[in-house]
Amino acid sequence: MAYFEWADDMVIDNGPIDDDHKKLVNLVNELHTATSVGRGQEVIEAIMTELITYTKDHLHREEQVMAALKFPNLERHKAGHHQFTERLNKLQSQYEAGSITVASQLSSVLRDWLSLHIRRSDKEIKVYLRKK
């Protein structure tokens, strides 16, 4: 069983948003697997860089989709994205300062945030798409 599994209740658009979310879930699992077998410090820099870059790119793409749809809660959604990006930047700074617990923190932070964000905030997009 994977650390973080994709579930049917996470489907938003059966398209690019879901593809991005699935990629992030896979990266979280890759990081967790590495930390579980004691290889977290070996892989943290590369995976963290990819996770953070991909997450920021995804959030930007998601915001573009919402803007194109004239999604009514875009600003609130963007504020949540900004807060999360700041959290990722803080973890990256901790890693760069020598913290050895960032790998495990990053995998749990991303798993928890992705799960809640997709199932709550991003669900608003799905509901809005259905109404349109």
Automatic annotation (TrEMBL):
Q: Which domain of life is it from?
A: Bacteria
Print the keywords alphabetically. Iron, Metal-binding
Q: Which CDD domains match?
A: Hemerythrin
* Keyword Hydrolase on entry: no
Q: Give start and end of each Hemerythrin-like domain.
A: 17-126
List the InterPro entries: Hemerythrin, Hemerythrin-like, Hemerythrin-like_sf, Hemerythrin_metal-bd
Family to which the UniProt record says this protein belongs = Belongs to the hemerythrin family.
- The protein here is known as Hemerythrin family protein
The organism named in the record is Undibacterium rivi
